Amino acid sequence: MEALDHTFAALADPTRRAILARLAQGETTVLELAKPFAMSQPAISRHLKVLETAGLIERRIEGTKRPCRLARAGVDAADRWLDLLRAALEQNYRRLDAVLAAMKPNTPQEEKS
After folding, report:
1. Of the candidates 83, 39, 81, which has an alpha carbon nearest to the alpha carbon of residue 13?
2. How far is it between the farthest Cα atoms of the chain?
3. Phi, psi of 65 (to 5 degrees)
4. Where are the domains of the chain?
5. Rounded-to-integer distance, Cα 66 and Cα 104, Å
6. Does residue 23 contact residue 57 with C-beta atoms inside 8 Å?
7. Measured on CA atoms in the order 94, 99, 101, 106, is the torsion positive or negative?
8. 56 with 71: CB under 8 angstroms?
9. What single DSSP character describes residue 20?
10. pLDDT at residue 112 above 80?
């Protein structure tokens, strides 16, 4: 659960969500990631560190560059947890559907009686 705490804490920040959205398009460098933001490269690097700690991105060394990309394991872990919630909701809706189906609607003849 601690990993999920890190994941959702990382996702709580709009800058980090924007970074992930950009990385969904493909691997890129820190400098490219920093371009659309009005913040310093060290600030972007701190956001990347949070995302990396949460397991949502991976960085590798390529000469002087450090390209970033989405990390499948971190995204999959969050998705599995959300699937548990989706399954619980579906079960609740199935029970509600069964209750509603069992209820007999009042017809106009029954109202006159």
Report:
1. 39
2. 86
3. -95, 155
4. 2-101
5. 65
6. yes
7. negative
8. yes
9. H
10. no
Q: Which of 103, 98, 8, 106 is nearest to 53 (CA)?
A: 8
Residue in 88, 13, 7 with CA at minimum distance from that of residue 52: 7
Structure tokens at 86: 């989706």
How much of the chain exceeds pLDDT 70, in percent? 93
CB 70 within 8 A of CB 50: no
Q: Inter-axis angle of helices 14-23 and 2-11, to 10 degrees?
A: 90
Q: Residue 89 and residue 23: Cα distance in Å, rounded? A: 30
- What's the whole-number mean pLDDT along residues 36-46? 91
The pTM assigned to this predicted structure is 0.75
**Distance in angstroms (rounded) separating the CA atoms of residues 84 and 111:** 44
DSSP character for 69? E
CATH 3.30.530.20 holds for 2-101: no
Cβ 65 vs Cβ 49: under 8 Å: no
